Fold each of these.
Amino acid sequence: MSDRPATRLARWQSLLPFLIGAAMLDYFAWWVVEKSDHPINIWIGVLALVSVAGAAWCSVYPFVTDAETGAKLEELDKLQSAAHQIQNLEKVANQVTIATSQWQNVQEHNTKAIESAKQVSEEMTQEAIRFADFMKKASDSEKATLRLEVDKLKRTEADWLQVVVRVLDHVYALNRAGKHTGQQNLIEQLAHFQNACRDATRRIGLVAFAPAAGDTFEPGQHQTADGRKDVPDDAKIFETVATGYTFQGQMLRPALVLLDPPKGPLPAQPAVATAPPANAPAEDGSAS
């Protein structure tokens, strides 16, 4: 709202002429009536009434115009308030437009970010696939190399196991030959030597066993020197020709035994089993 007075009544200077005019008209009506002859005629009465009416009009006119001015001022204030609100609405509309534009920009940036994230994700997926293929090829190559090394180690183990068995067979044959000489000192020395060799091989899991004379024949652990198949259940061992062997708890070769006294030359010592259990390497060869 403006700083001007709310109505004209606030400016008394503007009321003064009307008040003076009303007083003069009232005075004029009084003077006319007072100076005229009585009874007064109709024209004098009309003139006095006109003067009084004019005075009344001068007295009322400022208030009427003041009321009209106040109404107009109130309407003007309302129009100004409406205009101010319209300006505020325009500002809000501009702010909404700016916010909408910014939101669109944010939406575009988000869309670009999502697309970039999708591209990065696809690239990472492709890279993971390539890495998995590389690792698979490397693993296959490494497995093949390890498998080759394991095969080499198994062959090497089979070779040294065959050599050790041959040595133990020769030691057992030498011990048997010493027993046939009847020399007690030689027999004891050969027995100590054989025990020392067996103790050394026992540390790597190779155990030699030789059934004593008179023990019961067991098909799983013993084998006849003459190749007999119809061995009775109560058959007794007469002599052990070649020792049997177990490697890491699994049967490697059964002991070669005689059930009856020999009637001719003894056969050669049997070869070590060529198909030992899964945890024992294969062996080929025979002891002399």
Amino acid sequence: MADLGPIVSRRWLFRQWLLWTTVCWALLSVQVLNQRGISLGFLVQQWVWTPVLHEYERVYRQVQDWRDRWRTMNELAEENRRLRAEVFRYQQMERQYEQVLQEMALLKPLYERWQARRPSSLWARVVLPDVHAIRWHQIVIDRGSRHGVHQYAAVSTPDGLVGYVESVGSTTSQVRLVSHPFFRCGARVGTDGPMGVLYGQGNVSRVLLRYVPQGSVVPPGSPVYTSGIEGVLPAGLRVGWVEASRTSDTGEVLYEVRPAVVPSQVSWVIVDVVGVTPP
């Protein structure tokens, strides 16, 4: 293995020479600066501390600027949340206002009809859920004997016949719907067409018109009204429209009628309170 002693010695001598040369140059520089009245502290201040202080001030100003921006962003976010909550509240108010308008649009024809027939009718609200009307073909209204309601009084809407009062309490009444299996009433096709008897079928979308004279022409789409021949319901209340016809096993022509009123969508009704109560 080669002897590295001479090389190491030369490198060590070079480093020692460079170190002492640097020290001597530094001492000489300090002596020269002292002769000229310039201290080492002044140089350190000018070359080290002043740039460091300037950099610190710059960084501090930048941090302050970022903090102000962050504070402004938080304020804007809080304002945004507040505005969103305000918009949501106004949207709820708008929906409530639309519901009120819909309720008013529903009540207006009822009120107009009630005003026109004020001595003989009153308005009532349905107080049981829709499933009661669909399952049992009955509804309950918030008017009773205290308000002048009597049994077999006609119950209708501006669209047409709903049914008649089956039983009366002091403050509520039970209404039998047109679709009830035991519902019966006289009916007429059109204003001066043939008459028959309307039968409920336990189906809210179909009722049956029977006993129409043979040879009568009843085209589909013909309106069907109450005839009042049975002396219970007043004449002229719309029941629905003829949808189709079929012939029974006995040769009788049966007409399927689509009711004008959907019971599950009824909220307000008109009750006739003046008339002769059947025995």
Amino acid sequence: MYTTLISAAELAEHIEDPRWVVIDCRHDLVNLDAGREGYAIGHIKGAQFVNLETELSGEKRGVDGAFRGRHPLPARAEFVEVLRRLGVNDDTQVVAYDAHGGMYAARLWWMLRWIGHPAVAVLDGGMAAWQSAGLPMDAAVPSRAPGSIEAKPSLVETVDMAAVLANLESGEFTVVDARAPDRFRGENETIDPVGGHIPGAVNRFFKDNLQPDGKFKDPAQLRAELTAVVADPSKAVMQCGSGVTACHNLLALEVAGLPGAALYPGSWSEWSADPSRPVAR
């Protein structure tokens, strides 16, 4: 079972295995059709496509009308139905990939763990690693029988906005922001209407988890770097702009052997939507 990362060579050995499901998670936060268009042009042989906006996210406003962030989690039952449409069963090994250093694939990795499915890994190096190895690509959309996966107790933790707000006083946990340093400082904010960060948060840019070739740094290096940011993962909460790249930091922590951190799904986009909440710059 692969539970964090898988290499292109390892995936290639199982590309015809019916018990494996490969999922293309490519996306663009500006051009929302870019991922599907890229998939239609060419993808890893046998891979299926999921859309971050419609299949890995839920309604942006709650029943009370409050904004929940740009990519709030869907209901667990809704996500299970997405997985069943993709042919995922309880014993399926899932592999997620993208062309962006794992920033979107990590969201799917985390969400499968969220519904209690441990057999999920991110393709290390993504599509670039697959193509550079000369491995088979395809433009066909595969047909799979529906799966029967069931939700199980979650393998991960989440916190909500109220908990993060209370933490401003209690200091119970460390909040780690995965956005680029300039956005963390409140500069060059082009996605959310307000720039800055949650008071008390520290910055760990998700791209710092990667080597120049787009693959993850080795576990020892990640452990050394991440322990400088997170003294105790069980008392840490990962966030970003909308709960996506925070999952990349959560994956890096798992690779480093530092499990236990939680996700704040609403992240900065939820936090900053209410002007009564404090902002640091």
